[in-house]
Input
Amino acid sequence: MDTSVFLTKFWGWYLIIFFFVLSFNPKRIRQIFKDLRNEKFLILTAFIAILVGLLNILFHNIWEMNEKLIITLIGWASLFIGLALFIFPKPAVDWLEFLNIKLVQVFYILLFLVGLFLLNTAYGIVTI
Output
């Protein structure tokens, strides 16, 4: 399977699943931010974000104006968020909490729509 197709399916399913988890259990997101105040959890989260972002970028750093750009941007975002959490933990957590509080509904809808777009692209459900 082509790397682009694999990552399109992976991130599409991940975003859809994450959307439903957050929609049906909104307490979970508050718990994550509470846990980010724990240094051990923060380091582990930052390490995983860096690892996922770096692997995504190494296997898929394609800057074309289609779904491949979304996959690449997800990798870069993961890497930068992981580095920010690792290097500047307190400001990064404060910034993520601020964004989540102000843009939570927009964030959830974007998760869902981007996930649907990626899955549609990967499986060719609706053609335009």
